[in-house]
Amino acid sequence: xxxxxxxxxxxxxSTKQKLILISFCSVFGVIFINIFLPFNINxxxxxxxxxxxxxLSSFGFIAAIIIACSQFLVRKLFxxxxxxxxxxxFWFLGxxxxxxxxxxxxxxxxxxxxxxxxxxxxxxTFLGILLPYSLGILIIYLRQQKELASSVISSKETxxxxxPDENGIVKLSLLLSNILYIESADNYIxxxxxxxxxxxxxxxxxxxxxxxxxxxxTRLKRCHRSYIVNIxxxxxxxxxxxxxxxxxxxxTTVIPVSRNYNTAFELIISSIPK
Length: 274
Fold this sequence. Notes:
Elements: H1 2-5, E1 8-9, H2 15-36, H3 49-77, E2 83-84, H4 85-107, H5 114-158, E3 160-164, E4 170-175, E5 179-185, E6 188-195, E7 198-204, H6 208-214, E8 220-224, E9 227-230, E10 234-240, E11 243-248, E12 254-257, H7 259-271
Antiparallel strand pairs: 1-2, 3-4, 5-6, 5-9, 6-7, 8-9, 10-11, 11-12
Helix pairs in contact: 2-3, 2-5, 3-4, 4-5
């Protein structure tokens, strides 16, 4: 479980993915709440007809607005470009807490103590938002898998691998054998590769976490918080003061291996044909 929670969460990195989640939660929430009337929500107020429809629909719209603020404004404010599974789950719980507080302030009867009434709001909000939120993430996951499958098919046909931006659009296609390493550069990645025996680099708006997840089963391996390296391009590994450094073919660049990846890379290096 600890290993799973420490894995990159790659499903809400792009604007398109965030919009899919927000739109799905909004539409699903409005339809679901008006058809199935969970928690006897239609009896909470003495209304009916179009007035009741708008009241019930407002729960879905309010939740969607808060999720939109969370994903676009708050994440930008705190410069949060991507999550791990653990941090995403905490973020989701934070969204639920805020949504339930807004529901309490807008629809609360204030006849009971704050904690008693807010607890009901929190419980209903969590149960109500969990299904559309989970389905929205599932849709994003399936789209991502479809795009990845398409990229794999393309790479098999052409021999090239496509490196996408944060929206899943392939911005650079290269032979794997020509890629040297990929470096994190703020909100971008810098892809270093060989072109006619010259080293070139291209900036693409994405994160190393996303690239690492996409190319899990290739020779591109994460070795440091700031680097992914093509293990086929390693010509020498050097240990200095218990730290491992990688020397790559065709370049004088030395790539450090962080402590978390030391053991894995020692095994990788020992398996490289001499």
